[in-house]
Structure formats: C-alpha cells, structure tokens
Design a protein that fits this description.
Largest sheet: none
Number of strands: 0
Number of helices: 19
Number of domains: 4
Distance between the termini: 138 Å
Amino acid sequence: MEKPTTYQNCEELAEKTELDADLIARAFEVETPFDEEVKAATTFEEAWKLYDGANTGSDDEVVALTRALQLATTEDELWKIFNAVSDDSKLGEEAKGKINAMVRKRFADAAEFSEKVEIFVDLEEGDDLETELLDELLEAATMEDELKELRDSVSDDSKLSAKVDKKINAGIMGRFEAATTFEDKWEIFTGTPDDCEIDSKLLAELLEIAATAEELGKVRNAVSDDSELVAKVDEKISAEIRERFGITATFDEKWGIYEDTPGDSEIELELLAGLVEVAATIEEARQVFRQVANDRDAKKLAIRNQAIQKICALAA
C-alpha cells in the first residue's frame, strides 16, 4: 500500500477502513483541513478561537493550542494555555517556561524594591519561581523596612518565612551587637517583631549588661514567667537590691529600698530581717512588726518574733 500524501488519500482510506480520515491523516503526518486553518492563524485570538471550537479531548485541540503558544505574546495569553492543559504536559511546561521568562524580565526591570515585592506577591503559593525570586529579594534588601515589607508578604506557615526571618534576625543581631549602651540595645529589642525567635537571646544579653534597678526592672517585665531567664533575672535583681541596701546608712533609706522591692520575694524577708537589726527606736521596730503582724507564714513569723524582741529590748 502506498502511503497517503494528501487528505483526499486519507478520506479514500477512511471509506475502505471505516476509520476517521483525520485519524489516518495524523498517523501518516498529513495535514488536515483543520491543520491548514490553524496554520493560517496569525494572531493568538485566531488560534484560540479555533481551539475553542475543537472537539474536547481531540487532537485538533492540541494542534490549535500549539499554534496559540507560538503566537502568544503576553503572560495572560500564556496562562490561558497553561490552564487549558495539565501541568505536566509538554504544552504546559512550555507555556510555564515562557511565563517564567516574562516574570523574570519584569522582576529584573523593576527599579523599586516594592515593585519587585509586588511581582513576588502576585505569584501563586507554591509557584516554581517563589524560591528563586525570594532569594533575589533577600539579596537586594538592604534596609530593615524592606525586609519587614518582604516578611509581611510571606505567610507565617510558609516554608519561605524561615528564610526571611533568618535575614531579619541576622540584621537585628548585627545592630544589637554594635550598640554600646543598655539604652541603645533596649531600643533595638523593643523594635523587634512580636514572637521574634531571638527575643530570648537579646534579653539574655540585656540582663548581662543591666546595672541599675530600672534596667533590671525592664528586663524582668519583658521576660515571660515560664522563661528560663526568670530565675537569673530575679537573682540579679536581688543582688542589686542587696548591694544598695548594704551601702545605705540610715533606717529610713533602707526602708525606702524595702518599699520598692516586689512583694512576696525572697529578698523581702531578707530586707525585713536587716531592718529589724538596724532599728534604733521602738517606732522603727514597730514599723517592721506591722509588716508581718498578721502573717502566718513561718518565715514571716520568725521576723515578727525578732521585731517583738527588738521592741522589748529598746523599751527596757
């Protein structure tokens, strides 16, 4: 049998075989009337119209889409083709490849950082360009505001958020370590995003350099009660109070330090015992006594008894 070379040959074979003439033409790589129509299309719209009119699932659809892909000049046109086929098809891969090339060019041409972020945000979650463009944005970001803008564009549960957070944290740590005073470091700490991963690290360093009651109080208020830092902060606060209490000379000065001390703390009992010891008048001893007079805690009962003994000694 001679191979058919024209569509008419295919039609003749179709009558003999009861096969479709188009199927025979495709098998022998002979152009069909539809192929000729598609070939004559000079714009995307013309090729897309032919695709729309083709039978669903037919070879004609593929032929028309292939021509549409050749004629597509915009991202919207390419997305129409991509959405019309399966992602893993050859046409789908070619369409997405062209889309990516256009997106990359727009991204490269964008002069402002915010414009680049907008292009990144417009990507669908899971797009194969996400990681590539994010890496370029991270490379281009030079200011903290830019990094924050980028962080806001990434969802918290996205695998990309960790990359952004890592660079933000590195920038914060760099500024924090360069700062030389508690005040400057504290300002950097208070400017960090909520639930920042490095909060505890910053607080630990702030605690290390905190030297006054005010500075220690700031750190204590910023530390959550379940933090490992709580005990260390409280220990340093107690040490600072102990030092001030020890160098003051008069009962009134020591009393002022006691009054500024948080209630129900271990150091509170220590200060009361010290006040009993330095009380030089009955009224001063009574002042201590009144703080524990109605308390049944064993340690405070001991302070009460000491105060009573001092009152009696001064009255003798």
